[in-house]
Amino acid sequence: MVRNYKSTQKRRKWTNTALEAAVKAVKYEGTSKKGAARAYGIPRATLIRYLQREEEIQALGAFGPVFTPAEENELMQHLIAAESTCYGITAKDARSLAYQLAEKNNKKHPFNKSTMLAGTDWLQSFRKRHPELSLRTPEATSAARAQGFNRVSVNSFFELLEKQLESGKFPPSRIYNVDETSVLTVQTKKSKVLALKGRRQVGCITSADRGVLSTACMCVSAAGHFLPPMLIFPRSRLTDQLKKGAPAESVFSCNGSGWMTIADFNIWFNHFLAQTRPSPQAPVLLLLDGHASHVKNLTLIEKARNNNVTILCFPPHCSHKLQPLDVAFMGPFKTNVSLSIEKYLKQNPGKVVTLNEISSLVGNAFSQTAVPATAINGFRKTGIVPFNK
Q1: Which of 23, 221, 235, 309 could in theory staple to 304 by disulfide, Cβ–Cβ 3.0 to 4.6 A?
Q2: Terminal Cα-to-Cα distance of the chain (whole angstroms)
């Protein structure tokens, strides 16, 4: 079977509709067989055969559909349901399911019985009939995250959030979300390039096989206001070169790993208080995940209580769907960081990206990504602002 089959024969040029009309004309309207065949363009022998044997009128062509529309819709719903639970069906899995469905329903099919798979041509045609499906590269989601995102934990979070919002003390401009993301000195995503057909391998210059990791801490309000970020470098001493090119009023820190620690998060929280200036008349609601530097930080909890900041933590393993920064900002931001690295390498042949360039690369990506619409859309998609659990 070919994917775009076109018949080259002159046989069976009539349609099923014309054949049905010719049969009705002979049976119920008294038309002669010869007259009906001539009127509807059906060979007389074919018409006589269908009249005498009362054969079922079948679809034209040798490659008819294996499943009915209802059966295909059932298969499609199964594929969608599997993806929504983070256990997506691959193309090969879909072909296996199609074979099993055909065998279970005793369908006449051209599938391969030795491999027990439907053909790639069938899958191609199936996707054409159901354009709402597409092959996507899934994001890695741990089993803990998949199990943690459930109705009970999500409802308990929204009940707590609803109580805070009903107090009327937190308009969108006073609701913030903070999160960290890693920044590497190599591209995490590489742009596609045009290349000569037949090339077995297409290369792309990178800074190194494995990059050096730093951390960027981002914070945004439901009204679309982005705070200057915090950058954490894996160094024992902070230099002016490391700060060069960062967004205005950014804060910096260093430690042995480059990851966020309790001490680093306390530095960021002081920066947060200076930027938002919470008061009894204008308190702040801060949403964050359950990272150890957040929830196992007594200094943070005490300082928040004394400075009119209410902290609300997302349920475990749910931030990939409940955290506005994760949903709307981090993906485009990391893409723009990778594009900035590619641009730097092209403009500086022979050089590699080091930690001294990270601040400027983050600054370029931040200015492109940190737009109010992105933040507002993230809070809307997660159902936080406007509230929609």
Answers
A1: 309
A2: 49
Percent of the chain that is helix, strand, coil (3-state, to 5): 45, 10, 45
Listing from the earlier edge strand, what are the strands of the sheet with 230-233?
251-254, 230-233, 213-221, 175-184, 284-288, 309-313
For 28, counting Cβ atoms within 10 Å of its Cβ (0-12 exposed, 13-18 middle, 19+ buried), the class is exposed
Task: Report how far residue 35's alpha carbon sits from residue 21's, in angstroms, rounded to the nearest whole number.
Answer: 12
pLDDT in tens, 102-114: 887 788 888 888 8
389: helix, strand or coil: coil
**How far is Cα 337 from Cα 369, in angstroms, rounded to an integer?**
10
Interatomic CA distance for residues 245 and 259, integer angstroms: 21
- What are the CA-CA distances from residue 208 to residues 126, 184, 187, 333, 349 (Å)? 42, 10, 9, 21, 14
- Which residue from 222, 106, 235 is spatially nearest to 173, judged by alpha carbons? 222
Q: Phi and psi dihedrals of 243, rounded to 5? A: -90, -10
User: Checking DSSP bridges between strand 213-221 and strand 230-233, what pairing results, if any?
Assistant: antiparallel
**SS3 category, 259:** coil
- Of the listed ranges 68-77, 251-260, 302-311, 370-379, the least confidently predicted one is 68-77
Provide, rounded to the nearest whole percent, the portion of the chain with pLDDT above 90. 36
Confidence of residue 153 (pLDDT cuts 50, 70, 90): confident
Rg (CA), the chain: 31
Q: What is the pTM of this model?
A: 0.62
CB contact at 8 A, 359 and 213: no
Q: Residue 99: name the closest of 73, 129, 120, 128 by CA.
A: 120
Q: Is 337 helix (H, G, I), strand (E, B) or coil?
A: helix
